[in-house]
Predict the 3D structure of the following.
Amino acid sequence: MTWEIVFTLFFIGLMLIGLIFEIASPFIVIFFTLTIFVITGIVSIEEALSGFANEALWTIAMLFIIAGTIKKSGIIDQIISRLLQRQGTVKKTLLKLLPPIAGLSAFLNNTPIVITLTPILRDWCEKNNIPPSKLLIPLSYATILGGTITLMGTSTNLIIHELMIENGLQGFSIFTPLAIVGIPITVLGIGYLICIGHKFLPSHKPIKDTVAEQSREYLGEVVIEKNFPFTYLTIDDAGLRNLKGIYFISLLRGKKRITPLKSTTIVQPGDRLTFTGDLSSIAELQSIKGLQIETNSDMDISDLCNNHTNFVEAVVSHHSTLLYQKLKDTQFRAKYDAVVIAVHRKNERIHSKIGDIILKPGDTLLMLTGSDFQKNSGKDDDFYVVTPVKRTSYTKSNSKRGWFAIAIFLAMITLVTFQILSMFMALLITISCFFLFRMFKPSEAKHYIQLHVLMIIACSLGVGKALTNSGTAQWVADKLLYLTEPFGVLMILISVYFITMMFTEFITNNATAVLMFPIAMEISNVVSLDPLVLAVIVTIAASASFATPIGYQTNLIVYGPGGYSFKDFLKAGIPLNMMTMIATVTIVYLFWV
């Protein structure tokens, strides 16, 4: 074992620890690792930058724009709303929903699909007295399964395809060989979710409803009396911004309510200030002259909402600029026109002053939002809004544009299927048509593209070069073969799938694919196995993340809104992981070995 192998293994190990324990955002962790390899010469500057010029990267970017454009038209909403018109049991509802959702995910990015459908399903569940926790994990799983069917189904498929081409291999076509495996495991997975899987899921109320019911436990009011020494001063100047355990969120003056409450808001005699926090920590308020405390009022969350204020739930994303900062240091109110009234982590409310909470991926924010929230929250991907801020009215014009966009997209897919156009060229033409027919604006395209995903992919490709250049991939392959080769090819396939699956449950699917691909290629060279065999194994396994909420973006999105705990994913996901692994390995073995 050379020093390069030891050095590479050490820093790859540190990278995995950083990703698993969420020490920083995935991009920062992977970028730092790549920087170390460049500084030490294991990866050249040209190799480090080659990921940013990778064709798969730009293909994924164009797919983001297409998915965003179709999502904006409201077509997906309309299709699912029609399927939900009739009330039914959980089993019948899943039977109606999951096949078309998986079908959509085979061609569109699954993140916007889950973001779009989560509030629709929750509204429908509320009206039909069905726990949304019975539907949201199946929604995420169906989109993951559907993404394994085609080349464009998920970014992982495109990355492996491009890596194969770089290694002198043929690569995938739009349907083959992935559909040969993807269709059976999708049918099997949907059947499992409909017949058995939903029974493993809890009957939880969503966090939003739980918070609304318990709001009296942590909402209180103070009345500004005439003898308050700081009347006609701002909230900040009156010393009401930095109280221990107390966070002011709203002000009622006569019949007018001001939400979110800003530091520049001036307090007057008779104002009623609403605060949230630990009501056992109100001693500091009691010591302030001129504040009359009313913690036993009948006020609840609904009293704080009006025509300009909404009660909104959002999930902090893995790539958020808010991560690992105290909420009070993020300028949240000014940036989003919203105030956070509660933060839930792992299905439990964090009992501390809101402003002092350090945000982490998957945290669920319960917010009171002002009139500018919808506009401001669309500027970046800091969080996924999973309750509707405002019902969008889709016009006939929007609907026609949506169907026209789908028609253009399907025409391009047909041309790719018959190899008349390459995938890249077809998507380029599709984007050009969308732009010429004014289906999206350049400013919208910027928001549709998930830049963090592209940066992770580009940096991961550079880290993957380190595995090959240092000889680490060959060393790991030799050790893995030493343990599995005596048991035959089938055991080799199972071991590669299992290791890939375990990695993808705790780190990003794209990083997993890039790390495992060179190892898989070294194994195929040593045992004279068709490289396509292990390429398919790695591709499917890198996407098949069902057992944890942190392994795949769509699982993270439904984690809080469904009121799930970590063990709910284990109970529903591990059987699906095992079924997918057995089915994939069996199909690959029968078809290509």
The mean pLDDT is 87. The beta strands are 219-224, 246-253, 256-258, 272-277, 291-294, 310-316, 338-345, 348-349, 364-369, 383-385. The longest strand covers residues 246-253.
